[in-house]
Amino acid sequence: MDLFDQSPLRQENAPLAVRMRPESLEEYVGQEHILGAGKLLRRAISEDILRSIILYGPPGVGKTTLGYVISQTTKGVFLNVSATTTGVAELKKLMNEARDRRAFYGQRTILFMDEIQRLNKGQQDVLLPAVEQGDLILIGATTENPYFEVNAALLSRSQIYQLKPLELGDLLLVGKKALRSPKGLGAINCTVTEEALSHLARIANGDARVLLNTLEFAVLTTLPNEDGVRVVDLSVAEEAAQAQRVRYDKSGDNHYDVISAFIKSLRGSDPDAALYWYARMVYASEDPRFIVRRLLVHAAEDVGMADPNALLMAQAAAFALEWLGMPEARIPIAQAIIYIATAPKSNSVVTAVDQALAFVEKAGADPVPIHLRDTHYAGAQKLGHGHGYRYPHDYPFHYAVQDYLPETIREFQVYSPSDQGREKLIRERLEYFAKLKKGERQNSS
How far is CA 335 from CA 30, 266, 295, 314, 332, in A? Predict the structure, then answer.
């Protein structure tokens, strides 16, 4: 199916979102950051000097529409293919034709590749020579982060433009145009209240396609009143929309953005934000085990010894999930989220273990001091193992002044307690022990 097929019969039966597709940059709504007056991409399209680009953004923000606008603007030959139905043989055929077209007729060929992330590595590699030599100008459209899904070699030969979800004002403009336009809903005797249109725009979450298709459904399923007018009010709009659309792809870029926002909200001590992002993930059917695993990590990484109970709370949430399942486990998970978000914060554990690992990786393996060696096997004491060891429980405060490191690295220190929460007490305790140790060394010297 050709998304750009404008035959009258097909257009008449097409969804509203297709019928309302703009044909020029002047009709295009949104994406001012790349298509506003004076922007490079707008000038390249207007002057028909476009080079290969990758259009990246969520559904319904205008990637395909922009491809169609370019097809109406360029004087070159415009080809439209989908990665889901295109093989290597067809790509090679298109490339050969583009090369000949350029060599013999001086014509440029622009190839619009929808869902380019679905091309495998071999298919993407096939495009490289034609793109690099200028035989083919590629417009790739993808909902996935191209830095994850598109070959680096192809990215280096293309400009990447990120399209953003449409603003509420943009969506309202799109909806009003559709209601007025003869190719939209202008031929239907209908009235859509401002409240209803605003609701549909809000629940569309920046997706113009969702707005237009929901708006069309609301109008067409509403019976005319005694005056022959189809009145779409807020209650009709809510019924047509059913439930708010939440954009979240568990395997895509938005997945990582949402979990990143969740983690940073925990670290930033904002329980309300953390619960919001948690709800977003639950609503989108994220694997709850994935969420709880992140809680376990960040209870240790961001709270750590400032409040060791945070890790126990995360563990309890994991236990509840396995024994209760969802939706019941949503409550103990939320409790753990609130606890971790509101707990005092310290990343001293992360610093300490990473520094210790880095030190051991570079340093040699010094022998274990005699007094610390194992004495639980025959002959160990004859070798002197354990000689001079002081049993801490035999001393005041259950602390014995002695060294626990080889002589060559006696001053090794990686754990530096913060002044947050329980760790403040740990710091005071360790400082006291350090003074005792320093005093004994001075007396022995």
Answer: 41, 12, 11, 9, 5
Q: What is the DSSP letter of 302?
A: I
Q: The tokens of 416 are what?
A: 């530096």
C-alpha distances out from residue 210 to 176, 190, 202, 206, 408, Å? 15, 20, 11, 9, 68
What is the Cα–Cα distance from 143 to 153, expressed in whole angstroms?
19
pLDDT tens, residue by residue, 221-238: 888 998 899 999 988 888
C-beta separation of 78 from 198 below 8 A: no
Residues 6 or more apart whose CB falls under 8 angstroms from that of 124 comprise 116, 150, 151, 154
The predicted model scores a pTM of 0.57
Residue 264 lies in a domain: yes
Residue 275: CATH number of its domain:
1.20.272.10
Selection from 131, 45, 52, 126 nearest residue 83 by Cα: 126
Asked if residue 136 lies in contact with residue 96, where contact means CB atoms within 8 angstroms, the answer is no
Cα 264 to chain center, whole Å? Answer: 13
Residue 330 in this model has a pLDDT that exceeds 80: yes
Please indicate, yes or no, if residue 53 is contained in any of the structural domains. yes
| DSSP H or E segment with residue 190 | strand 190-192
Q: Which residues are CB-contacts of 315 (< 8 A; sequence separation ≥ 6)? A: 296
Fill in the DSSP letter of residue 226: T
**Does 194 map to a domain?**
yes
